[in-house]
Amino acid sequence: MNAPSPLPASPTPSPGMPPGDGARGFVTGLAWISIAMGALGVGSGLLELLAAQASTAEGVQQLLGALGGGALALPPMLRWTLEHSVEISLAGIVLSAPMLWLGWGLLRRREWGRVGFIVFLAIGTLLTFGLIWLVPEVLDQTLSMQLDLQAPGQPLPPELAGVEDAAMVMSLAVALVLAALHGAIIWTLCTPAVRGQFAAAGAAPRGD
Hints:
mainly alpha, flat, 0% strand, 208 residues
């Protein structure tokens, strides 16, 4: 009686490469998260835009006069924000729309969605590090809103001398964490198991 032939060994995934099912779940989950975040950003931006357009320019000026007319001087950054609320809302919509669009591309396994999402994350990482240089200005404007604490452009009081350094360290730590997260996502999107999904979708006949 012949011995049964051994079963073929199952292929072992390469180290660091997500298995097929895990790679598909990763792309699908990333796509839905991006769609949700993009839709939330666009929706909130539209609501803010409607609210900003509902307030007339005269009403904004009256508000600025009321806030700045008392003992508390209105910080320039807050004044600028109130005066440019429409532009800020439009910027939020413009920044959120690509995430919504690229998320749809990932969900449909379009190669432009994968490449575009990688570029989007890379640009976002660079902008995060660039925004660190605004931390001292934001801190200065925030402290200037406190009565008798600090005038804009003046040195920090001695008791708050370490606040700026702590804010810079915290901002840098957040930027590094986001850079690591974005880097991990970019690396995963470049693995063969993920790229193969988009290659297969591009080779298949499209019905849309």
